[in-house]
Amino acid sequence: MMKTLNDLKTKKPWEVEGIEWREVRLGDDYYFRIETGATPKTSVKEYWENGTIKWATPKDLGKNKGKYLIDTERRITEAGLNSCSTTIIPKGSIIISTRAPIGHIAILGDDMCFNQGCKGLVINSNFIYNEFVYYALLKRVEIMKTLGTGPTFEEISKDKLASIKIPLPFRNGKPDLETQKKIVEYIEENFSRIDKILEKKKRELELLDELWESVLEKAFKPKEGEEWREVRLGELTTEKPRYGLTAKAKDSGEFVFLRITDIDDKGEIKTDNFKFVDIDDDEASKYEIRQGDLLLARSGSVGNFFIAFKDYPNWVYGSYLIRFRLDTNKVNLNFVKHFLSSHYFKRWILHQKRHGAQPNINAEEYSSFKLPLPFRNDKPDLEKQKEIASYLDSVYEKIKTLKEKIQNQITKLEEMKESILEEVFRFPNSKTP
Length: 433
Fold this sequence. Notes:
Elements: H1 5-8, E1 20-25, E2 32-36, E3 53-56, H2 58-63, E4 68-69, E5 74-76, H3 78-83, E6 94-98, E7 102-108, E8 113-114, E9 118-123, H4 130-138, H5 141-147, H6 158-163, E10 165-171, E11 174-175, H7 177-219, E12 227-232, E13 242-243, E14 255-258, E15 275-277, H8 281-287, E16 288-289, E17 293-297, E18 305-307, E19 312-317, E20 321-325, H9 333-340, H10 343-352, H11 363-367, E21 370-376, E22 379-380, H12 382-425
Parallel strand pairs: 3-8, 4-7, 14-19
Antiparallel strand pairs: 1-10, 2-9, 3-5, 6-7, 6-9, 10-11, 12-21, 13-20, 14-15, 16-19, 17-18, 17-20, 21-22
């Protein structure tokens, strides 16, 4: 049974006599110093080869899962450090991604420098506890995002970052370190309890995924007495595969223009960012999407697919997709969809794709992919395919329902963590010194 927020609360450490809350700007140089970063020229080997100075980027922050950033993907040399305007900031400082994307935050677990996509916050530890600031800034991420500007990448300038305020407990006219530390203990005690439940829920999701893969694996293995054959995809179509339309996508137009980015890794269409094209009817007829069409990504997200279970009037598909018009006298569409969702197909993709600037699988290679099909009387057994697909549909829906329930619980747990931060860092009676 899930605990409520009230179950997790302990005595509030700020509810003691003599504590006054004030808002302090990050630009207050009595408490903070904001540093900006830079990138040494990547073409100069001596700036990078055998570098020992940790050099952080928004990518490092995005990949970081903990409160502390301990290491970085790349390091620079002393020459690289001296060649540009980046500077080393000390362990315990806070680093914030202020560009592409805005809002990743960590405490430095070591001395580091960083690129122009980040800014560093060096803290006066005589007055301010860095872990308190870390949690206070987590509550300010949405504010940070609203401050971003720029034609290509939204970015927070140093001045705008300096304008952000955080609430601080004061006692006798100065920041109270003891109360800051007690508040961090309060947050982490409650977060720890929530995280234990979160870990259990996320493991439940993993187990359901493992169960589904096990069900798929068993479904596509012949049972005793059954005849199965491997048939090439190219032998299961009514016409040759066709590469998609090359055209400039627009925000409005006569035809929906389905692109790789509109298809997710589950074989479903994402409807939040459709683009359009205007082409004549003759051209549209070449690239129309009809019931039975299998679209496969040939570049980038290779292996992503979409199967049309109905006609899509006024829809055409883009050049990085390949259309295979499946013969429904040989294959059940739902059977094919489940198989393409399995590890069998994913393993084939990993083995087959060519590695370069972009992974790529062409029409000929896709055509050679072999699907295992049940046969009867020397023909693909459509009834058996339908039976297997119906069984998988049933199991999938049950697993999907369980996963949605668990995901809702995870969302509520994450909201509880947000509520704790809201409780600590929102004080209507705070003052600006």
